Write the C-alpha cells for this entry.
Amino acid sequence: MDTKYIPDDLSVVILTYNRPQRLLNLLKKIPKSLEIVVADDGTLPSIKDILPEHVKLYTHEHFGNRASTCRNEGVKLTTRPKVLMLDDDVTPNGYCYMAHSLALEMYDISVGLLTREPNKPYTDDRLLFYMRDDLTLWNWFWSGNFAIRRDVFFEVGGFDEKTFNGTPEEAAHGFEDIDLGRRLWLANKRMVLNKLALAHHPGQHTAENPSPAVLRNQRRYYEKWGES
C-alpha cells in the first residue's frame, strides 16, 4: 500500500477475545505507521508476549465479558485525533484507513461497511436501507468497523460499561454499539455511512444467531431506553 494513503492522524483500536492467531493475521495487514491498540477482553493465556512491539495493549482478567470497558480503555491509550474501531474477525481494505480519515474531516462519525465478500460493498446488509434512508443509521451502528473523532467519543461517554458489561458469572455482549450510536445521534453528532471504508467480515453476524449473552444485552438495551 502506497504510504500516501495511510493517514497520520488515525489510531486503530482492535477488540479481541481468545482468537490470537486471527488477531495476529489482522495485525500483519495493518500499516505499522498507524497507532495500534489491542483491547483484549481477557484472552487466556495472555497475548502480551506475542504482540509486535509497536502495538499497545489493554487487557484484564475477566474473560470475554467486558467489551465496553475494553474499547473505552483502548481509546484512552490512543493519542491521535481520530480513532478507528475494529473487531479481530474483520479484514480492512487497504484504503479503509484513508477513507475514514477523510470522512472525519466532514463528519463526527464514519460508519464503515462490513462486507460478506472482499471489496464488494453491496454485500453489507445495511446498504440498501441507507440508500433509502440514512437518518436511522444509528440503529444499525456496528462496532466492527467505524471511526470517530476522539473528542466526540469522550464527549458522549464512550461505550456504556455499567449497562452492557457482563460479569465473571454471567456473560453479556452486544448492543453496546447500537446504544453508543443512539447516544451520538441524540447528541446531534454528524454520522455517515462510508461506502469507501470496507472491511471484510466473512463469518456469521451476531444478530443472525444470537447467543444467550447477546439476548441478555438486548433486554438491557430495551430496558434502558424504555422499549420492549
Observations:
- The chain has a mean pLDDT of 90.
- The two ends are 47 Å apart (CA to CA).
- Residues 3-225 form a domain with the Spore Coat Polysaccharide Biosynthesis Protein SpsA; Chain A fold (CATH 3.90.550.10).
- The helical segments are 20-29, 67-76, 96-103, 127-132, 150-155, 161-164, 176-186, 212-225.
